[in-house]
Amino acid sequence: MGKLDDKVAIVTGAARGLGRAYARRLASLGAKIAVADLNLRSYEEFEAEAKDMSADSTVAEIQAAGGEALGIELDVTDRDAVEAMVARVIAEWGRVDVLVANAGGGRGRPVDTKASGLDPALLQLVVAMNLFGTVYSCNAVAPIMKEQRSGRIITVSSVAGTAPSKDGGYAHYGAAKAAIAHYTRYLAQDLGPYGITANCIAPCHRDRPHHADRDPGQQPEQSGSRRARRAAPARHGRGLRQGRRVSRDRSLRLCDRCGHPDRWRSLARLTS
User: Fold this and answer.
1) Closest by alpha carbon to 201, among 101, 63, 79?
2) DSSP-assigned states of every residue in 22-40
3) Angle 79-93/133-148 helices, nearest 10 degrees?
4) pLDDT tens digits for 164-198?
5) Calpha distance 229→202 (Å, rounded)
6) Contact status, residue 35 vs residue 59, Cβ threshold 8 Å
7) Catalytic option among 170, 173, 183, 186
8) Active-site residue 170, yes or no?
9) What ranges make up the beta strands (E) of 119-234?
10) 95-149 confidence digits (pLDDT tens)
């Protein structure tokens, strides 16, 4: 039996890269997975990632491995679409135990996105993709988890949200990711009394493969990293910390035996 048997997980941005790895790992632990993405075949834009696929989608990969998965295409910047996605998951499986709010990314070139000269439209787009999409996803599952008196929420920041670039480029992305980490601290304080944990991870950009396939003006969230740094702990909303490695069987720290929510800490390493 898996640690997450009979649990239901939603992973946004799960068509490729990091989101795909999170979804497959949760599925391997027994969870039913809602794979949510703007395009369920977005990996096709990246040659190396396309070669890495063992089926025509993350959903198909999970099903081929004996798991249960549902694919949903949506734009996380559309609040109504996010609410509809969660409603579909409830209609299909009756509950939501885990949310991995992974969808996001960057736009523009670093040279054109320095802190003192951000284009308003680009700023709005990137903040919406990252911060607003995360908030909408968390808000959509929170009432369900409150009613269940249990739930696990993992948000995704970035090392770009913990320290600025040397030249001040990609400021919109870094600021949005920093906001996600701090939002998660507030979320943990809000939801802790209901038995719900909220933690934030900050994947290391340098550990992500397939950089050669990516437009340097884009920085998508889903890139297949195996290493992450500890971000917002669930207790008292304390500051960002760099994490240590944890063993494979503690990946995501989502099983029931992990203890009281107030004793939770965010994961330090994800394995796929």
Assistant:
1) 101
2) HHHHHHHTT-EEEEEES-T
3) 30
4) 888 998 999 999 999 999 999 999 999 999 999 99
5) 5
6) yes
7) 173
8) no
9) 151-156, 196-203, 228-230
10) 999 999 999 988 998 889 999 999 999 999 999 999 999 999 999 999 999 999 9
Contact 9, 31 (CB under 8 A): yes
DSSP 8-state assignment for residue 171: H
Cα torsion angle, 51, 56, 59, 65, sign: negative
Among the listed residues 58, 61, 86, the one whose alpha carbon sits nearest the alpha carbon of residue 74: 86
| Owner of token pair 């989101």 | 19
Contact at 8 Å (CB) between 12 and 133?
Answer: yes
* β-bridge pairing 228-230 and 196-203: antiparallel
10 Å Cβ neighbour count for 82?
27
Counting every residue written for the chain, the total comes to 272
Identify whether the C-beta of residue 137 lies closer than 8 Å to the C-beta of residue 104.
no
pTM of the model: 0.78
